[in-house]
Amino acid sequence: MTAVRRAAQARRAVQNRVASRYRLRGVIDAIDVDDDSSAIASLLATREFPWGITQSLSFALFRTYAVPSIGELLYDTGQFTEATQKRYDDTVLLLDAPIEHGFDSPAGRAGIRRINQMHAMYDISNDDMLYVLSTFVVCPVRWVNAYEWRTLTDNEIHGLTTHYRTLGKRMAIKDIPISYDEFERFYEDYEKRHFAFSSKSRAVADSTLDLLGTFLPYRLLPRWLVRRMSFALMDDRLLTAFNYPKPTAVERILVRGGLKARGLAIRLVARPRTEPLYGRQTPQVRGYPRGYRLEELGTFTPGCPVAHAPAE
Residues 233, 237, 242, 244: is their CA dihedral positive or negative? Predict the structure, then answer.
């Protein structure tokens, strides 16, 4: 076999591998958003971008702490500084129930009901709830488009937006934006008006970063390095709100460039995922090795309101 033929075969192999990665995109784009937006959200979160969506939603929750009315309430419960792993696990499991089973399934209803019960224990404003919901819409779109192996299509963005609008309605949130662009405008405006430093919010953020350092692969790195990497992913508005040090330009290039390189490697080399990866299956959820009941997650006396979890 000549070198030219070998090169041609290798090129075709790469092309076929890349094409196989895009097949699910076609399936998702064929889904009618008005008919089944949650199917779009589920396929994106469990098949196309399970790692990226998980990271983006974690980052979305993290951002909410920079609003003092949210961060201080979470600090006062004691749950986000003293039982950080449990709070992480419960939030993932409760929010993942509608993704895995659907809004109208027994599990989906139970997860949303449990979150609503916790929210009801506290006087949380509609605007704060709406801001939290907006982070669930905006952060995944921005993260995937910036760092994953492909960008989202208009239909996928519409599907994610509609899924979280449904979630907001089941939380009884009022004045929910209709489109992604409206969510993004609300998100930007709310952060500009409400982000501010609070020592209590900073403590919740620090505890969350400490928890991040216990997850693979981060626990293999020095804790200070994990924090610097985290800072490199934060925008100046968020860094200022927490009074975190500004990363250097080199740190931002290395960390963000590393994520982009991961996305490129997936597009060119990795095989597409054929089975969904749900939140309960991720290694970061570590608190329930013997299983759990959705009705028993969270808190039942004054404690964690899970102010960043949307529900019915």
Answer: positive
Domain-embedded: residue 138: yes
Domain assignment present for 305: no
> What residue numbers bound the domain in which 46 lies?
3-296
- Token pair belonging to 117: 């019960």
Q: How many domains does the chain have?
A: 1
Nearest CA to 269 out of 60, 13, 83, 79 is that of: 13
Residue 141 is assigned to a structural domain of this protein: yes
Residues contacting 209, CB < 8 A, separation 6+: 226, 227, 230
The SS3 of residue 303 is coil
Q: Is 189 helix (H, G, I), strand (E, B) or coil?
A: helix
303 pLDDT band, cuts 50/70/90, is very low
Among 186, 191, 232, 230, smallest CA distance to 66 is for 191
235-241 long-range contacts (CB < 8 A, ≥24 apart) are 237/191, 237/192, 237/195, 238/63, 238/66, 238/195, 240/195, 240/197, 241/66, 241/195, 241/196, 241/197, 241/201
**pTM reported for the whole predicted model:** 0.89
In a domain? residue 308: no
- For residue 219, give the DSSP letter: G
Hey, what amino acid is at 179? Answer: S
The span from the CA of 138 to the CA of 134, in Å, is 6
Check whether 42 has a pLDDT greater than 90.
Answer: yes
Residue carrying structure tokens 């201080």:
72
Q: Is the dihedral of CA 263, 269, 273, 279 positive or negative?
A: negative
CA distance 227 to 183: 29
Tell me, what's the pLDDT at 44?
A: 97
